[in-house]
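Write out this protein's structure.
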Amino acid sequence: MARSAATRTYGSRRALTIRSGPRAPRGRNHRSSSPPHPGTYRARRYCGGWCQRGFHRSAGNHERRRSGCQHTRRQYKGCARPVRRPSRTGPEPAEAARASQLRFLDSPELWTAALLGLGTVFLQAGRFDDGISALTHVVTTYRSFGVRVNEVMALNNLGHALISMRRFDDAIITLQNAVTIFREIGDRNGEGDALINLGAALREAGRFDDAITDLKHVVAIHRDAGDRNNEGKALTSLGVALQMAGRLHDSAGSHREAIAIHRETGDRANEALALNGLGLTLATAQRLDEAIATLQESVAIQSDIGNRVGEGGALNNLAATFEAAGRLEAAKAAAQRALAAFHDVGDAHWANEVKDWLDALT
């Protein structure tokens, strides 16, 4: 029987000839039009098979319309659409994932590094007990490996966590070890960071003279190195130690210098901390109106940047200052906001302190 032929076009492209009548026998290179194994796509020399746009034949416009493919046999030189061709000989996905997990668990270096990161995340989230547990394990592991750089990083973070949990004696021992290791490996910036934390621990333990001596040393380290941001942080810590030692004039000067540095560098978080310290110093000096304005500025910055820990501390100081000024309603409002912030970060110590203060005030 004779063949009849008609030519159709799709859009601006010329389609292949569509023939009616008996089809010519297919050659030895013919591939079945049945779908391949589920979940895979078969690559063809031209788009007359399975691709990511669906099954379509290059011999018919009706199939190209349905699939959205406009390739033709004559135009095709290699499919422009990527075709997924998974290996039939590799492991199954579940087996590959399990093998990856086993490699991770069999590598102490990998899971210790992950635990160090997890401990840091716990601290940032206010989960200090979990952070201390993770970091203690990390310190022990890195010490057994002899990896001093990672050990001292974990020690510094652990000391900070111990301060947050008010375990000052443990924090002092931990941070003194960190300072010693930083000096031995010649890391001056790390030494400065550890000394800041050590000064905070000494200050909170009531050892003000030791704290002031250490923090002045930190200021000198960062000033000599030209590290303005860390110099500002050290000045803030020094200002707090001076305030607790009763040297209010020196404290206010140290905080103001820190505020100027952080405004210069654009570090809003540390600017807010310096403002909080200055407000506390002014309140101690009974300059209550100045203290309230300064603490309100600190609270506003902490709220803007989402630092709930710092916001709670500034609100607590603001509430105490309002009370000292005789503004009890404002004091209650600030204390309630501080209580909510401490609850949000899981700081049970300060949450209980503020709650007891509120109960006494009412």
